[in-house]
Amino acid sequence: MLKLGVPSKGRLMEKTFAWFEKHGIRLSRTGSDREYAGTVDGIDGVGLVLLSAGEIPRELAAGRIHLGVTGTDLVHEKLARWESQVQEIEPLGFGHADLVLAVPQCWVDVDTLEDLDAAAAAFRARHGYRMRIATKYHRLVRDFLREAGVADYALVDSQGATEGTVKNETAEAVADITSTGDTLRANHLKLLSDGLVLKSQATLWRSRVAECDDAEQQAMQEMLDRLG
Amino acid sequence: MPDRADALARAAALRKRFEDLGAQVVETPILQPAEVLLDLYGEDIRARAYVTSDALRGEQMLRPDFTVPVVQMHMTQGAEPARYTYSGEVFRRQELDEDRANEYLQVGYEVFDRNDVAAADAEVFAQIQEALAGLQLRAATGDIGILMAAVRGLSTTEARRAALMRHIWRPRRFRSLLNRYAGRVAPSPRRQALLAAGDPFEGAGPFNGVRDKAEIAARIDALREDAAAAPIAAQEMAGIEALLKVRETLPFALEQLRDIAVDLPSITPALDRLEARTEALAARNVDVANLDFEASFGRTSMEYYDGFVFGFYAEQAPDLPPIATGGRYDALTRHLGRGAEIPAVGGVLRPGLILQLERM
Asked: Which of A78, A82, A83, A109 is the best substitution to test chain B (most B C-beta atoms within 10 A)?
């Protein structure tokens, strides 16, 4: 059975179902709302695996699912050398979100990464600790800042309500996913003009490591033909 | 691949060489407090070292090198002068190239001696070269101290010199700062508007966070001062650019650098040190006439070196990391010594790579 991993709840799940429906493949959840089981109609030999979007990269990399839908951000953050582990089949056109660096609006002197770096140096000299940036995307943000030559910062982990960390004085800046920027503005934060770390959207990925028997190979081909 | 027992035996033999030279054997814990390394290298170290933690001691790192713990040990209890040797595993996180080892043996030789710095540089280089005799390796050398002296001598504001010094080891940021200070990049319209504004805080929204209004105002003042400062002179820029390009055998490099010192007189003391080191190397029978010198060598990979730097490379196996590396790290001893400092130079060898090359 060819295994297709799909986000298990919310708008991401509904939009994924709708996207496949357009290609004549009907995905549906079975049983109660709390039971993560599903069926696939309109194509033979494909099974549905409902998972949290955050677990789909790992499952693809482990070869436990053949295909999976999740955000670019999660694949890039969670998989080292992601190109060697998964192949991008198709961006799905929804779930758009950008991973951005944002600082308090009142920092009128900070507009670019170069400013952030200079402010971080002064901040460390004044306060005795490195400027804290709250995020859950540690690897992406660290690589981005190293590439940009920003020093004297510390990443602090924030798994939710990241925009509130500045007001709560547990961080000086944030790196988080935003689709409209509304949450950032509401928390009096602004984007850096060159602070776009990654543009993300829901994407269909194929595992490069999952093994396929003949039937699975056939189902994969059928699936790719339908989508292509 | 050579097996671990062979690598351990070779490591022991190499360490014995250094012991016979009078070096004292030192051991350091594998788990190092993360704080010290984070303080030195910033977040970037997390991409290169393994971090672990427990609820009691907080974050710890698997030793990514010996130099930092050896310096700490020397600064708290060492007698002078001192020569140390060690052998053991270091751990390096590898996220890009799975062919690179994430755990390997290093054997090191470190000299803490304030009497004759040039002789100590030459001693470490020559001893490591001798330990590698028989392998066809190319040696490359450099001297971060020359670029640092050039920056310290620039006739511009202290703030600009400090910003450039801070980014000596980040060549791209260094270059973009230099271009801006030379007036080659115009400030953005937003920046011009900010500096021209009567009240820069107009429309800034509420103040929130730890970084307060006074700090922001102080940086605006700094930006205004910087905007008013004259660009770095063309002659000095030409000097720095020529310096960064020097790549020659040692005697010719020294000659070129002496020419560059006409535009950058502040590098002359550093060049005198380079010349003294060259003589000390020759006195140790190092073939200096054929020894490569690259002024930019070591700027991207070896953050704590601030003077002489060197590496040994296998040209027949260009994919291999350097077989040995080393250099001078006086500033590191100052940083970890809390006021105390001592000139220090050292190098490390990788016995596993040596065996691999011998069997090729």
From this structure: A109
Mutate to test the interface with A, among B35, B37, B43 (most CBs of A within 10 A): B43
Would you say the CATH fold of A97-199 matches that of A2-96+201-227? yes
Residues 6+ apart with CB under 8 A from B171: B296, B299, B300
- In DSSP terms, A41 is beta-bridged to A26
Domains annotated on chain B, with CATH: 1-116+129-135+342-360 (3.30.930.10), 158-233 (no CATH)
**Tokens 């097996």 — which residue?**
B3
Mean pLDDT over all residues of chain A? 93
User: Rounded to two decimals, what is the model's pTM?
Assistant: 0.88
Gap between the Cα atoms of A57 and B318, Å rounded: 34
Do residue A122 and residue B218 have CB atoms under 8 angstroms apart? yes
Report the alpha-carbon distance of residue B273 to residue B257 in Å, rounded.
Answer: 12
Q: What is the pLDDT confidence band of residue B339, given thresholds at 50, 70 and 90?
A: confident
The superfamily CATH assigns to domain A97-199 is: Periplasmic binding protein-like II (3.40.190.10)
Interface A:B, Cβ pairs < 8 A? 108
Rounded CA separation B106/B350 (Å): 5
Which sequence spans correspond to the domains of chain A? 2-96+201-227, 97-199
Whole-angstrom distance, CA of residue A54 vs CA of residue A77? 10
The CATH class that applies to domain A2-96+201-227 reads: alpha beta
pLDDT tens digits for B149-198? 999 999 999 999 999 999 998 999 999 999 999 999 989 999 999 999 98
Q: How far is CA A139 from the centre of its chain?
A: 12
Residues shown for chain B: 360
